[in-house]
Amino acid sequence: MRRVCTTSLALLLAAGVASADPFKEITVGVPVASITDAEAWYLTLFGPEIEVLKPVPGVVEFKVAPDTWYQIFETENPQPSGAVVRFLVEDMAASQAKWADAGIDTGAAIQIPDVVTYSEFTDPDGNALGLYDLP
């Protein structure tokens, strides 16, 4: 019986069925009151070159990293989830300056020496966001 189980596992691995990663892609969805206003705000945050999908009316998705989508969806009474979505940036000071010039306040940069520099802020609907920069 052990030989059958070992052979079956080897066949699954060889066929690419078994994977160390449980998921192939991630989509994080957050509620917004106005899809039009939120789309404009997020395009300012993410930049006009970002890949955007609009799969159905009231939903906009932004490809923020390989295999990672940030989705906004319109709802009558949006309630922030309490979760924080954080984005890795290469240079905290430069990133914050760029967004400040675009009218987005990304919060104060907090530095933990040799560990991380981060900031926290919200979108206009109160969804918690953050930036972080690693040494």
Automatic annotation (TrEMBL):
Q: Which residues are in the VOC domain?
A: 22-134
Leader peptide range in chain numbering: 1-20
Q: Which UniProt keywords apply?
A: Signal
Entry's PROSITE patterns? VOC (PS51819)
InterPro entries xrefs: Glyas_Bleomycin-R_OHBP_Dase, VOC_core
Q: At the top level of its lineage, which domain of life is listed?
A: Bacteria
Name of the molecule in the record: Glyoxalase-like domain protein
